[in-house]
# Entry
Amino acid sequence: MRKAIHIALLILLPAGLFFMLGFAASNNLHKPCEQLTINVRSHNGNHFLYPADVRQIIIERLDTVEGKMMDPDLLHEIDQIVQGIPHVDKASTYRTINNELKIDITLRDPLLRVINSQNQSFYIDRNGDMFPLSENYTARVMIATGRIQTEYAPGKNIAEPEEETEESLRRLYGLASYIDQDDFWKAFIDHIYVRPNGKFELTPKNGAHIIEFGHADHIETKFSNLRKFYLNTLPQIGWHHYNKVNVEFNDQIICSK
# Structure
C-alpha cells in the first residue's frame, strides 16, 4: 500500500507542477508587461549597440511596450524587429512569471573592415556576413582596401557560393580568417590590399615593409616560410632593411629595397 502511494506521488507531483507552470504561463498572456529588460552581449568589447539603442528602435516601431499584453504576437513582432537590426547576430525574446519582457542579444563579431571601390565602408563578421559601421564604436580589426567591387548589402553572406559575390572577396575572407586564427599573424597584420590582378598585399602593424602575398593559395606554406624568415633572417639585418618581401612563390622569399 505504501509503495503504491509512493508511486502515485511520484506521478502526481510532477503532473501538478507542470499544470501550475502551464497555468502561470497562460495567466501571463493576459497580463500587461510591467518592465522591458534588454541585455546586450558583445565580443571583445565591440559595443556597436547598447540597450538604450535597442529600446529606441523598438519604441519607434511600437510606441511603447510597457503596458501591452504579452501575447505571442507581441513577442514575435518584437523578436522580428530585433533580429532585423544589422548589428545583431542572435536574439531571444521571452516573458517571465514576474510580468517582465526580456530580450537577450548577442552582437556580431567583426573579422574585417572593408572599404570597397565605391568607397563604401562596412564590416564582415567571422561568419562571412556584411554589417554596417556603428556610430557608437569602431572595431579594431584588419582593414581591407583596393579592388573590391562587391557592393555593400546588409546581412549578405560572402562565404555562401550561391551569393553573387566576386571571387576575390571570398578569397579575401578566407585569407583574413586564416590570419585571425593565428595569434601571431592576428597581432602582426594590419591591412590587406587587393591589387587589380586579384593578388594580395599585406602590411604589418610596424609598417616595416609590404608583404607581396600573391593569390590566396598555399596560405599555410606561405605564412610558414614568412615566419621562418622573420625568426631567422630579419633579426640579423633589421626589420626596415627591405621595402618589399615577396612570398608568392613556393619555398622561396624574394626581397627588394
